Amino acid sequence: MKKIFLSVLLVGLIAPAIAQQINEKDSTMLREIYNASLINGKSYHWLDHLSNKIGGRLSGSLNAGKAVRYTKEELDKLGLDKVWRQPVMVPKWTRGFQEYAYMETGPGVTTEMDVCALGGSVATAAVGIKAELVEVQGIEELASLGKEKIEGKIVFFNRPMQADLIQTFQAYGGCVDQRYSGAKEAGKYGAVGIVVRSMNLREDDFPHTGAMSYGDLPKSQRIPACAISTNGANQLSNTLKLIPNLKFYLKQNCKIFPDVESHNVIGEITGSQFPDKYMIVGGHLDSWDLGDGSHDDGAGVVQSMEVLRLMKEIGYKPKHSIRVVLFMNEENGLRGGREYAEQAQLKRENHIFALESDSGGFTPRGFSFDCDDANFNQIESWRPLFKPYLIHYFEKGGSGADIGPLKKDGIVLAGLRPDSQRYFDHHHSENDTFDAVNKRELELGAATMTSLIYLMDTYGVK
Asked: Alpha-carbon distance 1 to 9, whole Å?
C-alpha cells in the first residue's frame, strides 16, 4: 500500500514539473520567434518589392507572372529543401480603359460618379449604356418588382454592410451576394446593367471591385456590372428620392480572354521525423488591379514566406514537412487552391494541418479553426503562451478559401485573424497600397503564424 501511495505521490509531483518544463520551453521558443521577426524580419521588405516594384497582380496578367518569378527566387535564397512552381490554368480578364459614369438629372445636367467594373463583367457597348435606375436592397426584391419594372433599366443594389456587426467579415458576407450574383439575377428580368454599392464600412470615394458570376446565363443576357463608391451610392440614392426618373450612364471596356497558364509557388522544409506528413502555410499571390494588393493578399504571402525563413533563422528543425504555398487565382476562381488539393490527392500526400493568412496585415488577434473538439481543446491549451503577445482569439469556425479544398477528416484548418475593423476600407480597392500596412503589425502576424506552426509541429494533430 505504501508503494502504491509513494508511486501516486511521485507521479503527482513529477507531472506538473514536466508540464511546467514543457511550457517554459515553448514560451522560450515563442519569444525567440517573435524577437527574430520584430528585430530581423524580412516580411516588410518582401512586401515593399511585391507592392511597389510589381504592383497589382490580377490572375493571368504580366504582373502576376512577375510575382511568381520574384517569390520563387526569394524562396530559393532561403536554402529550403525544395522550391518549385506548380502549373495552374487561370482565367484572364482585363479592365481596359478607366470606367466612366454619370447620373443625369435633367437634359444636359450630369454629375460624374466614382465606379469600377466588377471582375469578370462584360463591357458596355462602345457608346456606353444610359437608362433609368431601379434601386433595391437585395436580390430578393427583384422577384417582387418583376420584369415589367426592371426590363430596360439599370438595377442599383444598395444594401450596405451592417455597421453594428463587430465581426466585419460577417457584415461582408451579409451583402456580398448582390455583387457576386446581382448581374445574373437582374439579367433574367431584362435589366441592361447593374450598379452595386461597394462592400465598405467607410464612406469614401473609392469604388471596390470583386468577383461576380453570370452562372449559366446565356451570353445574350449578360449585362455590364460595376461597383460605385459608398459616397456615390449615398448621393445616387438620395437624388433618386428627389428625381425618380433620373438616368445613369456607364461606359466600361473590360474583356474576357481564354484561360492562360500561371503557377502556385511552393517551398518546403522536409520533416526530420515525419517527412510524409505535411503542414502548410500560405496566402494568395494574385490580387485585384486597382491598388497594389498589399493587404489582400500581399501581407499573407510574405507572412507565409517568413514562417519558413524564421524557422531557418532560429535553427528549428521541424518534425513534419512544412510547406509554404503561394496560391494563384483566389480572387476570381480559386483555381490555385483547387489545383494544389487535386495534386495532393493524386500523389496521396497526407496533409494534416493548413494555415492561411488572407485577412490583411493588421494587428493579429488570434486564429479561427476548422477542426474537431479534440484538436481544438489541445489548441486552446496553448492560449496562455500567446497571451503575452495580446493574442486571445481562438474560435472554432472558418479557416481560409485556398486551403478549404484540402478539407477531409483528420485535418486541422486554421486562419490567421487580424483586427478587421479597417480591412474593408482597403479591400479590392485603389487604396489597398503599401503605405496602408504597418511594419510592426505585419511582423507580429508573421511571428504569430510561425508560433502556431511550431506548436502544431511539436505536439502533432490528435
From this structure: 12
Looking at the structure, tell me whether residues 64 and 127 fall in a common domain.
no
Do 72 and 161 fall into the same domain?
no
Exposed e or buried b per residue across 156-177, where buried means at least 16 C-beta atoms within 10 angstroms of its C-beta: bbbbbbeeeeeebbebbeebbe
pLDDT in tens, 177-219: 999 999 999 999 999 999 999 999 999 999 999 999 999 988 8
pLDDT for 237-280, tens place per residue?
Answer: 999 999 999 999 999 999 999 999 999 999 999 999 999 999 99
Task: Determine which one of 330, 331, 356, 430 is catalytic.
Answer: 330
Which ranges of 49-155 would DSSP assign to H, the alpha helix?
A: 62-76, 140-145, 147-150
Q: Is residue 18 part of a domain?
A: no
Alpha helices in 259-382 (DSSP H): 299-313, 335-346, 373-380
Q: Is the pTM of this model over 0.90?
A: yes
Residue 330 known to be catalytic: yes
**Backbone φ/ψ region at 419: left (φ over 0), alpha (ψ -120 to 50), beta:** beta
pLDDT for residue 20 is more than 60:
no
Where is the domain boundary, 223, 253, 283?
A: 253
User: Which residue, 224, 253, 282, sits at the end of a domain?
Assistant: 253
Contact (CB, 8 A) for 311 and 378: no
Band of pLDDT at residue 315, cut at 50, 70 and 90: very high
Q: How far apart are CA 376 and CA 396, in angstroms?
A: 7
Instruction: Put the strands of the sheet holding 364-370 in their side by side order.
Output: 82-94, 255-269, 320-327, 274-284, 350-356, 412-418, 364-370, 393-396
User: What domain range includes position 214?
Assistant: 96-253
Cis status, amide bond into 297, omega within 30 of 0 = yes
CA distance 149 to 234: 22
Rg (CA), the chain: 25
Cell 469600377: give the residue: 116
